[in-house]
Write a structure and sequence with these properties.
The chain is of the alpha+beta class and about 190 residues long. The chain has three helices and eleven strands.
């Protein structure tokens, strides 16, 4: 019986050692939970800026975002999926690109880090990106995070809130301020 146990132990050690040298990758990052968000946004960089309203529907790697002026007039409509992104401005001009980030940069002139923002608006760090200087409040909610060269601050409207009501993300050349008025699961 002891020989069987020893053989099993050596086999286990061999399997573990074999896996260590095979570039075993961690599981892929999970997708952000779907949401429907409504709020107000300010985006500023060295040359451009935008202040207005934002409606963002996110479902399984598909984004649809409406930007409106402070008076409610449509400014731009963005649709994105795994095949790329398309943006239509209020004057009917259409732009296309492989990613939302490159599309917004080329069409509107400012940075919009959509991939991590999908997580930040829900109050969580984006997976697969380095995290530094994480700070949490007494309830364990994120209050500050540095990720992908963005310094992100989170504020909550109530002590019982699980998602932030305000978010400020600043990099060396851009600032995004987002007031989240509504954050809920998407309608079916």
């Amino acid at each position: 019986m002891k020989s069987w146990l020893r053989a099993g132990a050596w086999l286990s050690i061999g399997l573990i050692a074999g896996c260590a040298g095979n570039n075993v990758r961690p599981p892929p990052a999970t997708a952000a939970a779907p949401f429907d968000l409504g709020g107000r946004i300010v985006v500023r960089d060295r040359e451009h800026g935008f202040t207005g309203a934002l409606r963002w529907e996110y479902r399984a790697q598909n984004d649809e975002i409406w930007f409106s002026t402070p008076l409610g007039q449509s400014f731009a409509h963005l649709q994105a999926d795994a095949d790329g992104a398309a943006l239509t401005t209020a004057d009917g001009k259409q732009y296309r690109a492989a990613s939302v980030e490159s599309l917004i940069q080329s069409a509107l002139g400012w940075r919009f880090p959509i991939a991590p923002l999908r997580y930040w608006v829900g109050g969580t760090p984006a997976p697969g990106m380095a995290e530094d200087q994480i700070e949490r409040d007494h309830a364990g909610r994120l209050t500050r995070l540095v990720q992908d060269r963005w310094q992100v601050g989170f504020s909550y409207a109530q002590d019982t809130a699980t998602t932030p009501s305000r978010l400020e993300a600043a990099s060396d050349d851009a600032v995004i301020r987002l007031v989240i008025d509504r954050f809920e699961p998407p309608s079916p």
